[in-house]
């Protein structure tokens, strides 16, 4: 078994086990929204720190350094660096996560027993607001609408709901999402979608095309059009679901970077899942 395959298997298993906190409280068609949403938010948060590290040349205590650089009062050679950093992050990532809203910061609050659901709710809201007036605004609009932190299925009281989300975030925090080869995280996300589809039974058809069916369709679509000047450049799915079929077609061509993906989806929850899946795959 290759190193990448081993990494993928370990990550998939760890992520699936993280759902244990939510199992029993609701069925898979519902708790997938929380787990996948939190995984994606952590991914965006970690990507923020990685991008900052590359920009600033800081490799140690990156979270603390990020907070320092984002302080309007912090200066280098007499000039505040915050405006330049904010502009760079928004232009590079298409969004901005403030230091107090980083996943690692929220975890620190959970561990210090000072975390409130409003902290996460505000973080998700601020992320979406940070994309206003950017070309990425449509990509993030309403993206986390299905992460319903007020749902009684998380707990009958505010304290119980807070504990459920805290435990889920801690379980995800124990998993290394960053140090993996290639598209391992993206593949793991696809694995979770497939697992949720399996657990959801008849509801799965709303958001997931079985891998075997997806492979056949991808091979048909790319037949004699998978390389060179004849390579498929545009893919459209009129019932996009989670976006897995689009991504699978992209994996059957020589240069996936040349492919532009298009789709439409009636179900808002599924549409949000597709956007996360496609963005996570780059």
Could you please describe the fold and organization of this structure?
- With 282 residues, the protein is mainly alpha-helical.
- It has a domain at 3-179: N6 adenine-specific DNA methyltransferase, N-terminal domain (Ferritin, Up-down Bundle).
- Helices cover 55% and strands 4% of the residues.
- The chain has 12 helices and 4 strands; from the N terminus they run H-H-H-E-E-H-H-H-H-H-H-H-E-H-E-H.
- The protein has helices at 3-17, 28-56, 62-69, 82-93, 103-111, 117-129, 137-140, 158-173, 184-200, 211-221, 244-250, 268-280; strands at residues 75-76, 79-80, 234-237, 260-263.
- The strands form 2 sheets. It has a two-stranded antiparallel ribbon. It has a two-stranded parallel ribbon with strand order 3-4.
- Strand 1 (75-76) and strand 2 (79-80) form a beta hairpin.
- Helix 1 crosses helix 9, helix 2 packs across helix 4 and helix 2 packs antiparallel against helix 9 (184-200).
- The radius of gyration is 20 Å and the shape is globular.
- The two termini are 26 Å apart.
- The model has no long low-confidence stretch (mean pLDDT 90).
- InterPro entries: D12N6_MeTrfase_N, DNA_Adenine_Mtase, DNA_methylase_A-5, SAM-dependent_MTases_sf, T1MK-like_N_sf.
- Residues 11-167 form the N6 adenine-specific DNA methyltransferase N-terminal domain.
- It is an enzyme of class 2 (transferase).
- Keywords: Methyltransferase, Restriction system, S-adenosyl-L-methionine, Transferase.
- Pfam families: HsdM_N, N6_Mtase.
């Amino acid at each position: 078994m290759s190193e990448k395959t081993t990494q993928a298997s370990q990550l998939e298993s760890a992520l699936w086990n993280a759902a244990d906190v939510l199992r029993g409280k609701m069925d898979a068609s519902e708790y997938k929204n929380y787990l996948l949403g939190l995984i994606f938010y952590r991914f965006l948060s970690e990507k923020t720190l990685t991008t900052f590290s590359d920009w600033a040349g800081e490799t140690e205590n990156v979270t603390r350094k990020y907070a320092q650089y984002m302080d309007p009062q912090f200066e280098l050679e007499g000039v505040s660096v915050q405006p330049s950093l904010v502009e760079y992050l928004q232009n590079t990532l298409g969004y901005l996560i403030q230091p107090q809203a980083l996943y690692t910061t929220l975890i620190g609050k959970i561990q210090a027993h000072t975390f409130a659901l409003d902290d996460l709710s505000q973080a998700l809201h601020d992320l979406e607001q940070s994309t206003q007036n950017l070309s990425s605004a449509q990509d993030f609009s309403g993206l986390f609408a299905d992460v319903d932190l007020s749902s009684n299925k998380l707990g009958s009281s505010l304290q119980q709901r807070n504990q459920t989300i805290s435990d889920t975030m801690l379980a995800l925090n124990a998993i290394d999402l960053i140090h993996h080869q290639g598209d391992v995280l993206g593949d793991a996300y696809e694995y979770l979608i497939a697992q949720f589809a399996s657990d959801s039974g008849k509801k799965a058809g709303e958001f997931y095309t079985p891998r075997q069916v997806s492979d056949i369709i991808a091979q048909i679509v790319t037949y004699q059009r998978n390389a060179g000047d004849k390579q498929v450049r545009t893919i459209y799915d009129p019932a996009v679901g989670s976006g897995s079929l689009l991504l699978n077609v992209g994996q059957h061509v020589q240069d996936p970077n040349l492919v532009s993906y298009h789709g439409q989806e009636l179900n808002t929850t599924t549409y949000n899942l597709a956007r996360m899946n496609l963005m996570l795959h780059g």
